[in-house]
Amino acid sequence: MTVSRHTIVAALRRRGQHTRADWVERELPAQVETTRHAGLLATLRLDPAELDGSTTR
Q1: Cα(26)–Cα(4) distance, rounded to whole angstroms?
Q2: pTM attached to this predicted model
C-alpha cells in the first residue's frame, strides 16, 4: 500500500510538527510505500490505516 507524501505532511502539520513535515517533504518520494517505510511511519507516530483517505493499493 502507498500513501501520498502530501497526506503525511498534512498530518504532521495538523499536529504542529512543522520541522518534521519539512523534512518529509524534502526526503520522501511522492508516494510512500508503507511496508518499506514502516519504521519511519512508526517513528512519526503515524498509522497507515489512519492515513487511509489518500491511499492506493
Answers
A1: 14
A2: 0.84
